[in-house]
Amino acid sequence: MSESLLQAFSGVLGDLRVLLIIVAAAIYGIFLGAVPGLTATMAVALLVPATFFLDPIPALAAVVTVEACAIFAGDIPNALLRIPGTPASAAYADDVYAFTRAGRSAEVLGVCLTFSVAGGVLGTVILALFAPQLARITTWFSVAEYFWLYLLGLSSAVIVSRGSTWKAALALIIGLFLSTVGLSAVHGQARFTFGQAELFQGVNFIPAMIGLFGVSEVFRNILTYDFAATTPGSQAGGPFSPPRSWKQRLAESVRSVFGASLPLLWIRRWHAIRSGMMGSLIGMLPGAGADIAAWVSLAVSKRFSPKPEEYGAGSMEGVSDASSANSGALAGAWVPALVFGIPGDSVTAIVMGVLLMKNIKPGPEIFEKQAVLVYSIFLIFFLANLLLIAAGFLAIKAGGYAVRIPRKVLLPVILLFCVIGSYAINGSYFDIGAMLAMGGLGFALERRRIPLGPVVLGIILGGPLEERFMQTLSSSESAWEAFFSRPMAAALGVASLLVWLAPLVISLRQPRRLLKSVSARLRRLRQGSS
Amino acid sequence: MKSPSRQLLPLAAIALGAACCGCQDRDLYPSGPIVLICPWSAGGGTDQTSRQVATLLERQLGVPVNVVNSTGGAGVTGHTRGALARPDGYTITMVTVEINMLHWRGLTNVSYQDFDPVGMLNRDATAVFVRRDAPWKTLGELQKHIRDNPGHVKASGTARGGSWHLGFAGWLDHEGIDPGSATWVSINGAAPSLQELIAGGIDLACCSLPEAQALLDAGRVRCLGVMADQRVGQYPDVPTFHEQGVDWTFAAWRGICLPKGCPAEVRSRLASALEKVARSSAFRDPMGNAGFDVTWQPPEQFAETMARVDEQLGKLLTSAAMQSIGESRFGPMFFPTVLAAVGGVVFLGLIVTGQLTRPEQTERLSMHDLGRLAETATCVVVYVMFAETVGFLLTAGPLLVFLLVRLGNRWRVSVAASAVVVGLVYQLFAVGLRVPLPRGWLGW
Questions:
Q1: Do B188 and A416 touch (CB under 8 A)?
Q2: CA B444 to CA B440: how far, in whole Å?
Q3: B94: which strand partners?
Q4: Which chain B residues are closer than 8 Å to A211 by Cβ?
Q5: What is the pLDDT of residues A37-85, one digit of tens each?
Q6: N or C: which end of chain A has fewer CB within 10 A?
Q7: Which residues of chain B make contact with A364, given a CB cutoff of 8 A?
Q8: Does B48 contact A189 at a Cβ distance shorter than 8 Å?
Q9: Angle at B135 between CA B132 and CA B141, to 5 degrees
Q10: pLDDT tens readout for residues A234-293
């Protein structure tokens, strides 16, 4: 074992080519992740042709690094423009953007970066130490368990939303409804397509996300922003200061990014570990990825937080927990891929293809037969996360300059990027139209103070939720027993029911208060209508 | 106060943008980037094949070949798009066996007759997998069990009506067993089906051998047979249906097609390039390693195969047995109905709690505001309508200038900024990231 570890070390660290590839992949990954609409999956898919000509270890180095960097980079447009770069960042879009509006973008991105790295490292440790044991958990999950897991994820989106639960629930239902447009995967029949061939593909969540968050923000800014006024320097670096040496400036930059986040990492170390572990456990399950991990950990974080009212309006706690969870999920997705050859997410699906083409067969024995390769993957994960610190720091500084461009120039350019980002994923004009429609919807919903996050998650999980629901029903004789007959399913089912029932029970405990508020509202309603 | 250099700025910027995009000779095919439409998403076998073919074709043809995943609608979206593309040879499609199924299921009017075949690349036969502790040792035992215990065995491998489902149902039908004797659980994709198989949710999975390779090698699943005449090269231990006395074959194939009506020289140029790719070891070795059955068929033979399979599947899909299992207990509107009910409750809750009215902090939109929103939205609509014919630069550039000016920027700044931005964006996306941005009149 130690011999293969040494071999892995010399294969990864001793090979200059591998190190150069990791650096290049980090820059590429940061860049692609930061462009809205270009996901980690797309970044890796674009890499595949290059991997044909590489040896397995450099090829894997490129893929792993791109993936780790792209997920963090999704936070950059999320914080600066409120356009989630990847769906995993949508969970805390409003939180990070609130900090940018308060002129604290470098600080909040520093927190995202630090906790992403922490989550990524933790996920790697879990992958390295427990992969074969953990992979067994995957075999407990049949369609019924997935149904409950998705429901739990959706419930989390409602819980973490700021303000009224009713409004968050409405947002979720809108998202789920949008997901039913197109060809039903279970029945193979068209729904709500009105005879339009383009609607068969349904509402893709990437253009929907860009529209709901990005375009609606452009709309809002066009109306409210005072373009005649000069733009204030909203970034760290701040007001004009006398020229200093580059060392001082570097030190100041480093402080602006890491000054707040490193102490926070120490203070919230147990929270980070909890979220990172939750992230890698959820990421490990095929079909549940970094996005569900971010939502669920955010919900848990809010439930146990002393300041739950801050969530959705700029909560450093929430941002830090969700960041470590979605990065922890990445390594988790490799567990079933390496052990069973069942990819945990779309990125590992591509990786599997690359592995097989290199004649490397995933399976339980990969840990013995291909020990060098497996250790190399772990090492690359560590290296990628370390490199992410530097690459992420540079990206945050570059992003700071982008924000200083005057809004009146920036807004049309953002719109152009929204258009191309929606188009890039499928090369479809219909997606641009969908993006625009979602922009209008997002704008209208925000005016009614209805949160947008649950809409996005509804669109993402609506299809899988329906599929699992139908599959569970059709795979069992007595329909409703199917959801609770397996122990794991029952546990998850009870958990997701509790999430909904607990607040209700608490409010029922104070019946008088509830009655009073309802009657007061009814009175107001009657007055309003008369 | 106008210095000449400031006046020249926009011009210089336009020149820079133009230089970034470059011009090409458009007389000889191929002279520009080719789009390869993959109707399935990234991470699957078709995507993998597409990307490898694209890379190798690029070397043969000397122009970029960019893969676009046009996914959704069980393959309808991508195939339709490929069939309706301009027949100039710059859009090619990785057509899969689903083209022989979709029109029979009434999902689209597009069929194999809307394509000009260029060549078949690979063909993977369906195989039947069971868990390692399953009671059936041979295909015959499984077949007998299904025949004797209708409704007992649960199977999957893909969504209902997908290719592996047809392979499975066709097998039972061929053996005189009602295809409805086994419950087909509609699970989208081979990987989640195999996951469900080892989790114990289903009893057998039908998919291609490479998709189950890892689980097969690990001994977690057993393969009872592959629906082919001869053993598959990569899997000499897997028995065929044929040698177990079942004369049924079924395979999913993939091949490159052009939309109908391309010039003959385009077709022959592409076919010869593709043949070189398909026969090269750079294609065969990695595909073989990954377990794919590489089978090259030239255009005429590929056309015959498509016609034959289309007829075979048509018979199966229109048979009474298949029609009856197409329906499930819960129809497609069941889930939307549940949603509507929950949505209704939420809506009532919002009305009762009085939260549906406009919050007091939000100002009412004035006509002027609505005008500005409409103007911005119109720009996007204009782009969608004209970009394909006019081209990216000529559409996005003026629209960007318009928006910039409307937001209070000076003309000169606007023109310069949009020239630089549009030029850079084109370079970045079309050249660097291989997004097929519309080329239009100018070629960029």
A1: no
A2: 6
A3: B256
A4: none
A5: 777 887 887 887 777 778 888 888 898 899 888 888 888 988 988 888 7
A6: C
A7: 218
A8: no
A9: 115
A10: 444 444 455 567 788 888 888 888 888 888 888 888 989 999 999 998 888 877 778 888
